[in-house]
Structures are given as C-alpha cells and as structure tokens.
Amino acid sequence: MTYLADKKISIVIPSHNEEKNISYLIEQLRETLTPTGYAYELIFVDDGSRDNTLNELKINAELHTNVFYVELSRNFGKDYALKAGIAMAHGDAVITMDADLQHPPQLILKMLKLWENGYDIVYTYREGENPHGKGYQKVTSKLFYKGLNMLSDIKMENGTADFRLIDEKVVKQLKLIDEYEIFFRGIIKWAGYRQIGIPYVPSKRHTGEASYSFPKLVKLAVGSIVAFSARPLYIVSLIGLFFSTLAILYIPYVLVSYFLGYAVSGWASIIATIAFFGGLQLLVMSVIGVYVGKIFMQSKHRPHYIIRSSNVVIVNNDFIRV
C-alpha cells in the first residue's frame, strides 16, 4: 500500500468520561498511523466530562506535540463535540471516531486506501448486531434505522457509525452548516459526493460504560427524523383527512337515525369517540410542535457549543500550541 507522505490527517475524537481510554487510544493510533508516513494530528474534544478525562488529555498533549484538546464548558452532546473538533481540523482528510476503542483503529488503513482511490467519504456501518451491546440497545438500534429510513429522506445502513473519513473539500462544506440539533450521520449521507461504506465488527469497550440512555436515544431518533424530512407532517395530515372523511360519512347516519326516530344508545361510545379524537388531535399537535420548537431554537442563533479551554490556537490555518 502506497501513501502520500505530504498529506495530513486530522482525527477528531469526542470524549465524555473516558479517562482510562485516552492514553491507550493514543498509543493504538500512533502504532497504526506512524508507519503510514502521513502527518497526523489527534484532536480530542472533552464534552463536559466529570472524571479526569481533561487531565489525561493535558498530560498527553504535553507528551505528544500532535495531540490537541478542546474543553467544552458543559456536555453539549456528541454531535456538537464533533462539530467543535471538525471546526479546528485542517488536514487533507478528517477522521471521526469514538474514544472507547469500539471503533478499531486498524480500520483507518482501509479508509485511507479508499480515500487515495478517489472516494470523498468513507463511512462505516456495523456488521450484524453489536456483540457487546445491551439488549434494549440492539432493539432500539434496529427500530431507529428502520424508522429513519421510512420517515426521512435519507437512507442509512443499520448500525451506521460516527467512524468515518471525510475529504477536505467535504469538511469545508460541513463547516458552513449552522443547524440546530445537527445529526452528522444523516448530514454525511445528505451531502452526497463520492461515498462508500465498509462494514466492521465493534470491539469491546476498553473500559467504562456507554453513556447513551434510553431517553437520549428516543430524543436522538425524533430529532434525526424531523431534521431530514417533513414527512411526519404529511402523515398526520393524511390521518386527519381520513378521520375527517369518516366524520362526514357519519352525518347521513345521524340524519337517518333522527328522522326514523332511532334513539342514540349509551354515553360510553360518545366518551370513547371524544377520547380517541382528542388523543389524535394531541398527537398531531405534538408533531407540529416538534417542528415549531426546532424553528424557535434555530431562530435564537445561540452558539452550538462554548469552549472553556484549549491548547489550540489557529493562526494562518496552522495549529499553535499554547
């Protein structure tokens, strides 16, 4: 395999409570990338960790001149941490990956080869089920991607990961996106360019536990669907039209019953009907409310993240240690 040594690779790694994984991950990446001849930099984004992740990053930044850290003022979420890291990357290609070592560093070599062969984006997707995932995570993952593919305008493989390589020209376009609740896995698919996906088998976490809870997964699913399609609005509109039509067809029955003297029986059916349509109205209003809420938050133009500290300063598109 032949590499071009005059190219630089930026690796962006969001980190949340990963104190015991940082040093080992850096060692694995150095063993993988140093023989390639590429210049490379490791950009860690501390996303509001409550352990000693930041201290580990500072120590490694002192030991290695190509290790940089960005400390966010609080936990803004993984996608915003990715955005912060990508904003500071200026390599010929940017690789994003998790800090828990479930994304095997050795797969980067295959990504680089495909990139050198002309692909602008090389993304990864999980091959089969995650052998190390919890039961509810396996179920929710399948439901998430099926729902996303059905209700949104993008199509993604089951288990698509945040482990990917992005060419510099794509990165420049990503930096221009100013979107509330950005979902990078969807944005990458939406962006187009020449893409290829490669399967991988997740490794076991080196240490620690996954921080994504079930409520966070539900929020991610809803936010991802409404971010890429207005199809849910069309669906609830069709539901409303369907039941409105049924209500119109119910009028002849009421008139015939009235003129023929049939008594309207019971109140239970009336209460059930009111409760059903009341619930349906609340459902429709909640879907509309999600979209209105996103418009409201987008209109505030708040920064997507706040940097508390960093050893990075960008001067003339170069990294300067501070």
Task: Describe the protein.
This protein has 322 residues and is of the alpha/beta class. It has two domains: 8-213 and 303-321, Spore Coat Polysaccharide Biosynthesis Protein SpsA, Chain A, CATH 3.90.550.10; 231-300. It is 48% helix and 18% strand. The protein is built from ten helices and ten strands. It has helices at 22-33, 53-63, 78-88, 107-116, 135-151, 168-174, 184-191, 214-228, 231-260, 268-300; strands at 8-15, 39-46, 67-72, 93-96, 121-126, 160-167, 195-200, 307-310, 312-315, 318-321. The strands form two sheets. The protein has an eight-stranded mixed β-sheet with strand order 7-5-6-4-1-2-3-8, with helices on both faces. A two-stranded antiparallel sheet has the order 9-10. The longest helix has 33 residues, at 268-300. The mean pLDDT is 77.
Q: What's the CATH class of the largest domain, please? A: Alpha Beta
By CATH, the topology of the largest domain is Spore Coat Polysaccharide Biosynthesis Protein SpsA, Chain A
Named at the architecture level, the CATH assignment of the largest domain is Alpha-Beta Complex
Number of domains: 2
Distance N terminus to C terminus?
A: 36 Å
Strand percentage: 15-25%
CATH homologous superfamily label of the largest domain: Spore Coat Polysaccharide Biosynthesis Protein SpsA, Chain A
Main beta-sheet strand count, sense and barrel state: 8 strands, mixed
Which geometry do the CA atoms define? elongated
Could you tell me the mean pLDDT? 77
Unreliable spans are none
Radius of gyration: 25 Å
The helix fraction, in percent, is 40-55%
- Figure out the total of helices: 10
Find the structural class using helix and strand composition. Answer: alpha/beta
How many runs of DSSP E, i.e. beta strands? 10
| Biggest sheet, spatial arrangement of strands | 7-5-6-4-1-2-3-8
Order of helices and strands: EHEHEHEHEHEHHEHHHEEE
